[in-house]
Write a structure and sequence with these properties.
Layout (H helix, E strand, L loop, with lengths): L5 E4 L2 E4 L5 E5 L7 H14 L3 E5 L3 H13 L4 E4 L4 H9 L4 E3 L8 H14 L3 E6 L8 H6 L1 H18 L5 E6 L3 H14 L5 E2 L7 H17 L5 E2 L7 H14 L8 E4 L10 H12 L7 E5 L5 H4 L5 E4 L4 E6 L2 E7 L3 H14 L14 H8 L18
Parallel strand pairs: 3-4, 3-10, 4-5, 5-6, 6-7, 7-8, 9-10, 11-12, 12-13
Antiparallel strand pairs: 1-2, 13-14, 14-15
């Protein structure tokens, strides 16, 4: 159910079957160019592909030309209530503007902004927020907030379509996850335009990440959504990190490694949580896409995480490094992580070949029991280790 219509923000395609785009928003005062561009650079390094900046004052609009020139990613100007600021932002060279056609100052002001966007060849983002619905929809919102969000969004769509402008994406955000999900599902059935997903005011990193993953993940699994922002009360870099984890978990995008770790149990002899934290931190330095498993014991390790490219399974004094369903070596626990990354680096240098896997011939527990007989630091026998298609 991907949006058939496509727009471009600074050359980045959104909708029409393009990959889901990650965006965030700066927390700085936009007129502080040094702070704003530094935060944009940090966001870009984390994987942000489009950034939005607030433009509540004229001094913010005046800073936009330099910000746009210095930004490594497309810049969207966030405008509310003031059409003149939107016009200044467009003249400054921003790659898109976020406005609400219903509160920008009347039909004539909306038309001015649309004409300027057309001349500049840039798109807009429009849409509704559950916390700021117009007065004429308050009664409907009390009965069905999701429906009220969609009605407001479609009213904005109608305004732009009357002006023969269709270069836009739409959002219908709510902080209540079920409402947000219902609103986007209804809107996807009623409008062909790209959809910008978000659970607005999601909260702190822990709760907000969960709400965002549930809300946006539910929609993305059904092909609804073309770009997203995870809205957290935190450093916006964290928003980008969470957004990428959502997309990676759904298999929609790849960026850097994915780590698999067991939940631990009474068989955990090594402190799998500590192992996982160290491995995850070291994986941050790798831009390549691959999977690494961290398991707390040698009983089910390669079996439970057999699809991972690499993994470690811990023991009291020794652990196993394995790759592509094969045990590579048995090593002392003290050097287990270092040996894992030594093998990963060697594999990357060789061009990341993924060998054909053996069919599972033995239960994981039996295979690992046999592998335990491998001399310390030696490569295991391929015929005695588990694999899979």
């Amino acid at each position: 159910m991907a949006s058939p219509h496509q727009i471009r923000v600074g050359g980045i395609p959104i909708g029409g079957g393009a990959p889901v785009v990650v965006q965030s928003m700066t927390l700085t005062k936009t007129h502080d160019v040094e702070a704003t561009t530094a935060q944009i650079a940090a966001l870009a390094s984390a994987g942000c592909e489009i950034v939005r900046v607030a433009v509540p004052k004229r001094e913010d609009a005046k800073a936009l030309p330099l910000i746009v020139r210095l930004s490594p990613i497309p810049v969207i100007a966030d405008i509310h209530f003031n059409a003149s600021l939107a016009l200044e932002a467009i003249d400054a060279g921003v790659h898109a503007v976020r406005i609400n056609p219903g509160n920008i100052g009347g039909p004539d002001k909306t038309e001015q902004v649309v004409k300027a966007a057309k001349r500049a060849g840039i798109p807009m983002r429009i849409g509704a927020n559950a916390g700021s619905l117009p007065r004429h929809l308050e009664a409907l919102a009390r009965e069905d907030t999701a429906e009220a969000l969609v009605v407001e969004a479609l009213e904005q769509v109608e305004i732009l379509e009357r002006l023969d402008f269709r270069d836009f994406k739409i959002s219908v955000k709510a902080s209540h996850v079920p409402t947000m999900i219902r609103a986007y599902r209804m809107l996807a059935d009623r409008a062909p335009y790209p959809l910008h997903l978000g659970v607005t005011e999601a909260g702190t990193p822990f709760a907000g990440s969960i709400k965002s993953a549930v809300g946006m993940g539910s929609l993305l699994m059904d092909g609804i959504g073309d770009t997203l922002r995870v809205s957290l009360t935190a450093d916006p870099v964290k928003e980008v990190e969470v957004a990428w984890e959502i997309l990676k978990a759904l298999g929609l995008r790849e960026r850097g490694p994915v780590m698999i770790a067991c939940p631990s149990c009474g068989r955990d002899n090594v402190g799998v949580e500590s192992l996982a934290v160290v491995v995850e931190e070291r994986l941050r330095d790798y831009p390549q896409a691959f999977e690494v498993a961290v398991m707390g014991c040698a009983v089910n390790g390669p079996g439970e995480a057999g699809d991972a490219d690499f993994g470690i399974a811990g023991g009291r004094d020794v652990g196993f490094v394995y790759a592509h369903g094969r045990v590579l070596k048995k090593v002392e626990s003290a050097v287990l992580i270092d040996e894992l990354f030594r093998e990963i680096d060697r594999w990357i240098e060789a061009g990341m070949p993924r060998p054909k896997r053996l069919k599972l011939a033995k239960p994981a527990a039996l295979a690992m029991a046999e592998a335990s007989l491998i001399p310390m630091g030696s490569v295991g026998s391929v015929g005695s280790v588990p694999g899979g298609d």
